[in-house]
Design brief:
It is built from 10 helices and 38 strands. It has an 8-stranded mixed β-sheet with strand order 31-32-34-33-35-36-37-38, with helices on both faces. The protein is globular and about 70 Å long. Helix 2 packs across helix 10 and helix 5 crosses helix 6. About 15% of the residues lie in helices and about 30% in strands. Among the domains are: about 280 residues, Alpha/Beta hydrolase fold, catalytic domain (Rossmann fold), CATH 3.40.50.1820; about 100 residues, no CATH class. By secondary structure, the protein is of the alpha+beta class. About 50% of the residues are buried.
Length: about 750
């Protein structure tokens, strides 16, 4: 569930909107709307969980195909659209957002042998990223795949924009598999096989390919077959929660139909390996390796069970899979180099360590530690031709270590040009690594590390733009005592010279789930917020991975309350230190972050002037019945046990809304193609807040009918969404130029 942030290039440019900084001392006025806000009828249910009766007044909304429910959602969205469109200043704000967003191409790249690069690029005024091929760093880009021109076999491609979810290039470099996601619908992906030299499709198409579950496409050494993960094609009327059950990996041979693909790993495939139907079963075939690695994962769990088999046995009867590690071993990644296995594990090392095994006889009892646990959290390792490249998180700052393929070799620190975030991309056939970097206040860049010269150089793949290094922003890192005294990291970003007078529009973000860490990033569109005097802050709550698995477990299950209590502590700090005041403070969270912000405003409605809940998990007691519900049980728990019910009830914001309570203004969002958090969760929360609040402040539901869990509608929709979010907040904060009817 966790969703990844897009990194943008931006900086402070002309002060086009400087006049909008003025703050009105009056309360925000109401927006005009020719439409009445629809009222949801009360026709719900009451459940008895282990003797506790729990009301669910909007249970009927779970049937999204009910005509009355459909009408209510459409009427809510129409009302929201009318309200947001009447906010003065929104049009100018949108124009500035577009100017920043379109000031420079958005580019990502990976390196292949022979100095060839695959380049993802979105040009200004384009809606989605396209895939290009480049010979040499300074070469000309040749278009390989335009997702909007790839015709899908599914009937639903009209629901939103097609986007490229993943690609896999054959070992000989002649073919590639392109995974296409239609309109953010992750359960309707398609895999298309294309010829790189011509861009011609071969006609091999696989439906229900699991792009959303990871990059589970691996070519065999023959470059004529590949393995992939596939979701079930459920019959009509099957329960939604079964869609990710019995997940398997298949072998596809070019030129044959999908129906002939052979299952090679997963539930019911190998009699000697009992596989829980809820587990995701994937197979990875490392480049230049004679081994295949099978992985069983709970989709949201950091640890997996791993198996190994000779690659030439894949697709043959009785593939001799051997277990490398089980779930109890805490292994989160496996890398192969020759007969060497490298395992990243948090067992007996909450901040993780890297151990070594012999692939010919993988015995954990004989493992040797090659990179021990330290103060920094080891987050990932990548295989290059010369070494493993390891990413660490050191007090919120990304570090890189090079670990040569020798038990006698010592790890080498890679000197980065500045402190911030770093992501690593490697190819097992190419020495060195590509490093993607960003900070809270400077532009995203792509660097290359040469192990021979030990130099990090800017590749120039991401072009320099007019807003790359503003020089007018600054960030601070503090640690805030939470309710139990635990120090919680808080990152704060603002324009230099900010006055701590309690009057600054402030947006506080948080997540707190799955061990996912929010690291420094820089978004071009955020510059428009800073120009309006805005402050951005990120609270690194427990449940994330900022301090390893211990930090994750401290905000999970029975300890989940730490997530929103940490967030409340950070919000209070922002007020106490005069960065802002409750009237000008908004909290926000997305997806599982809906638990954080939903429970924060139900616990402390007085602390926030507004809130934004994006595709939020808000009805934790009923999420289990959704398509993504079963896979979330390891992280969230289950109502099938009394302890699980108590934990889920505590974190369910929908069930903690109280009548006649002055709640802050709330903007909730959902995508109608969302396969991870069903739209009825934000819908039910919207209806409940509208009925309960006594503050008179708006509770709005914004719906993207062409998008899914945070994407799928293209760049224009993203720009519109950002303008809606900030206009809504500035209206509620009393910023003068955003007040209707003046």
């Amino acid at each position: 569930m966790p969703t990844k942030r897009r990194i943008r290039v931006c900086a402070v440019g002309s002060i086009l909107l400087v006049a909008l900084i003025a703050i009105a001392e009056t309360q925000p006025t109401k927006a005009n709307s020719a439409l009445p806000q629809p009222v949801a009828p009360l026709a719900g249910a009451t459940d008895d969980y282990y003797g506790t009766k729990v009301a669910d007044p909007y249970r009927y909304m779970e049937n999204l195909k009910d005509p009355q429910v459909e009408s209510w959602f459409k009427a809510q969205n129409n009302y929201t659209r009318t309200v947001l469109d009447t906010i003065p200043g929104r049009a100018r704000l949108l124009a500035r957002i577009r100017e920043l967003d379109q000031s420079i191409p958005e580019v990502f790249a990976t390196r292949l042998p022979d100095d060839i690069y695959l380049v993802w690029k979105r040009l200004p005024n384009e809606d989605v990223m396209k895939l290009y091929l480049r010979n040499g760093l300074k070469g000309t880009d040749r278009l390989l795949a335009d997702p909007e021109k790839i015709k899908l076999t599914a009937e639903d491609q009209a629901r939103g924009k097609n986007t490229i979810a993943n690609i896999a290039v054959s070992p000989d470099g002649k073919l590639m598999v392109v995974g296409i996601t239609p309109g953010g619908s992750e359960t309707n992906n398609e895999l298309h096989v294309m010829e790189i030299a011509t861009g011609r499709e071969l006609g091999d198409v696989i439906t229900h390919g699991a792009c959303a579950e990871g990059l589970f496409v691996s070519w065999l050494p023959d470059s004529r077959s590949f393995v992939y993960g596939r979701l079930q094609d459920l019959p009509a009327g099957a329960p939604a929660e079964q869609v990710r059950q019995n997940f398997r990996s298949y072998l596809h041979i070019l030129g044959t139909g999908e129906a002939k693909d052979m299952p090679i790993f997963g539930s019911g495939v190998i009699p000697a390996i009992a596989v829980d139907p809820s587990l995701i079963a994937s197979v990875n075939i490392p480049l230049n390796s004679r081994y295949a690695v099978g992985e069983l994962n709970g989709s949201v769990t950091p640890n997996s069970a791993y198996y190994i088999a000779p690659v030439d046995s894949i697709g043959k009867p009785d593939t001799p899979w051997r277990k490398i590690a089980d779930f109890a071993d805490g292994v989160t990644a496996v890398r192969v180099h020759g007969d060497d296995l490298y395992l990243l594990t948090y067992k007996d090392a909450p901040r993780s360590k890297i151990i070594h095994l012999d692939a010919r006889k993988p015995d954990l009892a004989a493992a040797a530690t090659v990179l021990p646990q330290g103060e920094a959290v080891i987050q990932e390792m990548r295989s290059a031709e010369d070494a493993l490249y390891v990413r660490l998180l050191d007090g919120g700052i990304g570090r890189v270590v090079r670990l040569p393929y020798s038990l006698a070799a010592k790890p080498e620190r890679v000197a980065l040009p500045f402190d911030g975030s770093v992501w690593i991309r490697t190819d097992a056939r190419v020495p060195g690594a590509m490093l993607y970097t960003a900070t809270w206040v400077s532009a995203f860049k792509i660097y290359s590390y040469d192990p021979h010269s030990k130099q990090v150089t800017d590749t120039g793949i991401q072009p320099l733009g007019p807003f790359d290094d503003p020089g007018t922003l600054e960030s601070v890192e503090v640690k805030v005592p939470s309710h139990d005294g635990t120090l919680v990291p808080l990152s704060i970003v603002y324009r230099k010279g900010l006055k701590l007078d309690g009057a600054n529009p402030t947006l506080l973000d948080g997540y707190g789930g799955y061990g996912y860490s929010i690291t420094p990033y820089f978004s071009a569109t955020q510059l428009a917020w800073y120009e309006l005097g805005g402050v951005n802050a990120t609270c690194h709550v427990r449940g994330g991975g900022e301090y390893g698995e211990e930090w994750h477990l401290a905000g999970k299950g029975a300890t989940k309350a730490n997530t929103w209590l940490d967030f409340i502590a950070c919000a209070q700090y922002m007020v106490d230190k005069k960065y802002t005041s409750p009237a000008r403070l908004a909290g926000t969270g997305a997806s599982a972050g809906g638990i954080l912000i939903g429970r924060a405003i139900t616990e402390r409605p007085d602390l926030f002037g507004a809130a934004i809940i994006d595709v939020g998990l808000l009805d934790a007691l009923r999420s289990e019945i959704t398509a993504n519900g079963e896979t979330n049980i390891p992280e969230m728990g289950s109502v099938k046990t009394e302890e699980g019910f108590k934990n889920l009830y505590a974190m369910s914001a929908y069930h903690h809304v109280k009548d006649h309570t002055p709640y802050p203004a709330v903007l909730l969002t959902t995508g109608m193609n969302d396969p991870r958090v069903d739209p009825w969760e934000p819908g039910k929360m919207t209806a409940r807040l509208q009925a309960a609040t006594s503050s008179g402040k708006p509770i709005l539901l914004r719906i993207d009918y062409g998008g899914g869990h945070g994407g799928g509608s293209g760049e224009n929709e993203q720009q519109q969404t950002t303008a809606d979010r900030w206009s809504f907040l500035l209206w509620q904060f009393g910023v003068h130029e955003f007040q209707p009817n003046q």
